[in-house]
């Protein structure tokens, strides 16, 4: 059995890998809480506060996309592991499956709902949203998808730490 490397390069790549996971947790938590808050405000008819309008300014959620660094740095860690770990290991395959599910949740539900809400908030300006029902559905989708992303990130974290 080979031992894990402990050099500076490995440590830097590991920090980058973990940093992408942490950024994923933070952005998914922010999306879950913001989507939930927006849904509650829309249901009550309360005007949207400026902070919420700022959150939904149009643009790509680049912070959320940092999750794509997880498999990139993970593959680099595998390559640097000096044979201690291999792509065929069950825990590595499970981690890949969890990441694929995470990417599907993000690209298929979370970020599209977020983009629709950005467009609705931008179109409303300082006034109320035009289609409250559609925005409420998108807010619910965003909150649920972000919660699913949190669960997937947590499962992946447990898997990578345990490496069963």
Write the layout of secondary structure elements.
Elements: H1 8-44, H2 50-55, H3 69-80, H4 90-124, H5 132-162
Helix pairs in contact: 1-3, 1-5, 4-5
Shape: elongated
Structure classification = mainly alpha
What count of structural domains? 1
Biggest sheet descriptor = none
Order of helices and strands: HHHHH
Residues in β-strands, percent: under 5%
- Multimeric state: single chain
Helix content: over 70%
The CA-CA distance between the termini, in Å, is 15 Å
Describe this structure in words.
With 164 residues, this protein is an all-alpha fold. It has one domain. The protein has 5 helices and no strands. The protein has helices spanning 8-44, 50-55, 69-80, 90-124, 132-162. The longest helix has 37 residues, at 8-44. The chain is elongated. The model has no long low-confidence stretch (mean pLDDT 94).
